[in-house]
Amino acid sequence: MAFGSAIKNAYAxxxxxxxxxxxxxxxxxxxxxxxxxxxxxxxxxSRNDNHFYNVDTAYSYLLKAKKTFSTSTLKQRKNWQPYGxxxxxxxxxxxxxxxxxxxxxxxxxxxxxxxxFIQFYASAGELISAIDLRDIIAFTNAEKENTFQAYxxxxxxxxxxxxxxxxxxxxxxxxxxxxxxxxxxxxFTNFIRLYSQSPYVGAAQDSVYNxxxxxxxxxxYYGFIKTYKSNRNVTDxxxxxxxxxxxxxxxxxxxxxxxxxxDYPYSQHAxxxxxxxxxxFYPVKQGSLWGxxxxxxxxxIPYKYEWADSNFFDGLAEVAQNDKIGFINKRGELxxxxxxxxxxxxxxxxxxxxxxxMCGIISTLGQTIVPFEYQEIMNFSExxxxxxxxxxxxxxxxxxxxxxxxxxxxxxxxxxxxxYVQNSEGxxxxxxxxxxxxxxxxxxxxSKFKDSLAKIRSNSKYGLIDVKGDTILNCEYDNIGDFSDxxxxxxxxxxxxxxxxxxxxxxxxxxxxxxxxxxGGMFHGGLAKVQLHKKRGFINTEGKTLIRIEYDDALPxxxxxxxxxxDKKWGYIDKKGEVAIRHKYDNAGVFHDSLARVSxxxxxxxxxxxxxxxxxxxxxxASDFKxxxxxxxxxxxxxxxxxxxxxxxGCQLNSVQSFGNVLEVVMNNKMALFNIQTRSYLWQxxxxxx
Length: 690
Known about the structure:
Thrombin, subunit H; 17 helices; 30% helix
């Protein structure tokens, strides 16, 4: 009864918030009535209005009361009822304390705080939330550090965290980046060896590949293949090696490749390419779409392009789709997509292309060699190409380097290590391949060097200089022709003479000048056409008249005869000046393949070297014979004849274009291919001839 009275007094003190008295009484009674005393002590420690407030202490007392209550008798429980002690009140107080403890953990919001709650309040309803919040903080801390060690520690400490998979991913990438930060092959290979299960092994292999073949050289690809046999890029390296080695698409190059690399695992591919490289393809169309056939007329590339180039260059041909240009190979594969506005055919494995109004250069492998930042890029000459940028001219190398900055008003191709340029003052001079001015800009015009000489103009007069800039011929001539047979025409005051390459006037300026003589008066076979008193003849390189100057016009000698005009009639003379074929034609051409075109009253035919008409004068026009055939026209239509005058294709064609031994002919807007050797059509568009 004494203990019961003491319990009663303790709860009475608790009810009036006399915490000191209540706590003292409960402490004395803890061993005698554990449930009542510990429950009371738990209440005191759980209230924040007294000095004894401590949720951990409150929780410890409550758990002791709960444990003892669970093994108590019905009589004991009946005795505790006056103090509000039963299983529900115990659970309610437990929930209250746990909730308060969780709130305190949230306020501190530290890993240690949550860990304490998780360990001390292991049965709390907020346990999962506490674990989640702790894991979030731990993951956030790892993110801030962002090292593979931090993520590894997180995964080791919190293997069940929701963030584990994310941490795993970040660990892998951080590990990869850290161990390969120097971007050296050895670092990547060590990573592959030590972390073979890493998802970044593939990336490491790619990096090894890219570094080992950074210059895209054949020897680099082969070295990579032999050194890193298990690398996932070996197959690609073989293909790149083959493509780089054979990028000019020539049969002999492919043959050399097969000899140099007998271990190439795709030899059948190379064999097929060799056959294709030796096969001539011809562009053909059905309706509005183009494709290609071979020399037997078999369709090799389907009709699907808006336009197709006449030939393959470096193994690739230009084609168009959606008004854009790309390139295909002879397999019909679109190896360079149709994305360009304009394109030049490939030459020495590079092509100048235009996109978005700007020019760049690509390789046959589709690599951009020169970025798209130029208005124009001219053809390469001696490893340099003229470029236009912001309306100024400069030069780039084959590597795409802007060797000479765009600074000139005009620029020409390099020839013999020199190129003419025009400075801001409008004067011309010459630079070398390094961009250094070797001949000062002092001329009003300049040409490129040919055989160590260049034509220049000072004021309105022309002269010659050598590659050193030394004057060979003073600027005192109205015009200078091109050298032929080491001799060039010079013109002054409408008089024509000739100079040698040393600037010596070897034939005096005594002949008359007309514009057609600038090219027509060049030496050919030791003879040049000249004019005196409006009559023409021929002189030799010593200035001696070999053919009397008595003709109204003359054309060059070929096959020993030259057409000459007297009294509006053409005939032919030999090199002795003797009439070989009398003058009776209104027009006459030089001999080709032992036949010459002649015309009377607008009708054209052919004569032989004896003047005999072998093909009647019945055509409006005719071309010189080539491959034994001539294109002739009657009215508005063309046809093909042979050297005997036989009609191979009647005059019913709209146009004829030659592709060597094959002619592309068009009739009524339908095309066909005609084989000159077999004298038969090898392919015809549907509807041709109808």
